[in-house]
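Internal ticket - ligand job 526, guanosine-5'-diphosphate:
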Amino acid sequence: MSPHNTTTSPWTARPPVVAVLGHIDHGKTTLLDQIRKSAVAAKEAGGITQHVGAYEITHTLPDGTQKKITFLDTPGHEAFSKMRARGAQVADIAVLVVAADEGVKPQTLEALEHIKASGATLLVAINKIDKPEAKPEKIKQQLAENGVLLEGWGGNVPHQEISAKTGKGIPDLLTLILLAAEVAELKADPALEAQGAVIEAHKDARVGNVTTLLVRDGTLRKGEYVVAGNAQGKIRNITAPDGTDVASATFSSPVVVIGFDTIPAVGETFRAVADKKAADALAAAFLPVHPHTKFGVGVHTAVPAPAQASAENAGGEKPTLHVVLKADAAGTKEALEKMVSDMDFPRACVRVVKSDVGEVNENDVTFAESTHAVVAAFKVKVSQATAKLAQAHGVLVLRSETVYELADELKRKLQELLPPEVQRQELGKLTVLATFKMEKAKMIVGGRVSDGKIKRGAKVDVKRKGTILFSGKIIQLQHQKEDVAEVPQGRECGMMIVPHIPQDKFIEVGDELAAYEEETALRPLE
Ligand code: GDP
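stdout (structure tokens):
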């Protein structure tokens, strides 16, 4: 063999993953539908394309080369906003959609903040240019006033004028996306163990936990063990978005897998590991991002805890709260260590990763950060500078003056590690008498409340002949054309429902809507 061709780089260019964000009604859903539709039409593919949270298309560049792009198929996808807190990056490129007739709106700016924080490359799509009242130049100026300097407007943010409705400009937008991907030099290695992000997850009565994974690097194979947060399992089945079963998947493909033992959180990172032991250890060492963090930021990422901590948890499946303990005196320190280590409950336990006497200092904070621990400060000072540092690094410092206080705080933190208990409260039922606007992302229907009451903000199951077709949420409720908060039994009302995921099915006259509310409560430790 010639010595010249033995060393090739294992790295290959990776297709970009794209999220679409922007103000409501600016055309995000229409754009995503249009791109998907033309891709399917181009391939003349029959078959069912399922909504799995993401889809893949192939775009032909002006020079004739064909390249793939993966789109997250829900506007402002939940995974996109959650990934930051969870340390995962889902999208490489974010397309900010701004309607040319309306311009920059509050949610445009909100989306912009998300994009900046995510580190994704920003592209702007100025939409609805087919409308006579469209003023694309004015939009560019508005964007500049808000710090988004487009190419040709004193900056380097690529942009494209489009009509999501007619399709105009969309091929150019796809080309821009591929150019931006090239600039970002997205690389991956198929020989590595797979890793990526959880895009969707739900429980299916027939097959168990169904999870959409977006592979961002490596190759995922049937039979491998995967871990996402504290969920883990052996992959029994991999399905491509076109519904075909595949033996493996590589970047940046969305695939539906079966095999997780519990439902992982959307936006969580996942990784394939060597064997069950490694999967158990990683999952057990995981500390989730919990909503009650005092500082309002994600405290922990899904990065595995250090080997030592994981090893101790090998074989165990309990969530573990890591604690850096600081006490006021040596005697107290020992007593507290024992007390804290004894906090071993059937569902979760505490592990002291470091303990010391004295004020909480910078080292404690960095140590806590790297071991995904909370700092328990018992009768000791936390200087303002240290508190600030902790806040900046997302490390939680729990201060207590009594043993009871400390025990209570730690127990509460432990409870927050467990998935909350969700209790469903039935509100009422409604029979659909008329349907109005039927779109994938919003449906307007009217009907009569046959039982209980219907409330604005309630969740609904859409049932036909007793089978649930899909679920959604009531975002607007009207009685005799007036907005109301609730409508009692016997009355008629109109409502706007946003489906939980874009629907292929629509509500029909005669369907029954079952409205309910969900209450979440902390799960008991034993
Ligand atoms: P989203 O809330 O951002 O997902 O917006 P939608 O995609 O649901 O679009 C809101 C409305 O704008 C719908 O009635 C679309 O038909 C319409 N729309 C979207 N894109 C265009 C466009 O390019 N031109 C025109 N004229 N209407 C559009």
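Auto-summary: Residues 22, 24-30, 75, 127-128, 130-131, 163-165, 441 surround guanosine-5'-diphosphate (CB under 6 Å). Confidence is low (pLDDT under 50) at residues 1-9, 43-49, 288-316.
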